[in-house]
Amino acid sequence: MHIAEILDQLDVTDWPQFELLQISPLAIFVLSDRAVLEEDMEVDVEDDAEPMELTLLFIVLSCINDRCGEGLMCNRETETCEQCRDKIPWCAKNKRHCNHYRYEEFLAENCAVTCGVCTPGPISPPLEESECEDKSRHCKKNARNCDNPKFKEFLSKSCPRTCQICSAPLIEPPKEQCFDSLGADTCQELKNHGFCQTSSIYNRERDVKFLCGQTCGCCDGQGCGFDGLVAPPEEQLIPPPEKSLIPPPTKSLLPPPERPLIEPPLFGGSPSCGDNFRGKGSCAQFKRRGYCRRVAFYGLEHVKRNCGVTCGLC
Hints:
4 strands, 18% helix, two-stranded antiparallel sheet, ShKT domain-containing protein, disulfide bond, mainly alpha, two-stranded parallel sheet, ShKT_dom
């Protein structure tokens, strides 16, 4: 059966940018030795198989976080596999939080190397310039997979020009990556609250570029924030504290208790944005300790929900 026929049965209209179908598997196709999936590729599956029983794992073009292969990680913003790296500067200090249920998703996305989500891979050897011609129409979409050892042999033959493995470079080397690692919507909301201004209480320029470079206008060699701003005091450049305000569970990584951790607001705001924290300590104390400027670490929704009024986010 051709891949295109399977896609027609599954009614997938935006091939190949769809995500993993969460269906009981009849057959799993793991493309561990191919970086490109052609629509006319044939797979061994019964023609009379029920279409909703099929589970297809489309790796590379539509990635799954732990299925990109060695040297790669999944970029959830673009839904493609990219080079394995840590995106924020304080990953090492927060390594012990990698499996914490509150921070696991954020750290897996932004501290992939530190948290063991992926492993950096080697660089492919060069080819002769005479062989430097792309033979696949999917090369540009798979440029980020050129250094993946699982796809190296295939891409060296199919996409040598795109992967720059010729004896003489035929295309300009890629620029330093600069994008919104927290997502465009979150970065825009942070920008509205002064996150891009590197003299504010939130972040220095390097952190702004790591987290919201595109929205804050830090890409292409441009500086972040507005001209003439003074860098924040040194004590405001310290990464998140060793101890989180809500300590991780000691026995097992259990989900949060069913009883709400916060009560209806008493000092203004709303359940989604207000001074709602009712545990040990107060929002004023947390603000003095730097809680409000750790938006990127604790998460914007977390800060707004617990101390939004005090932090000026409501």
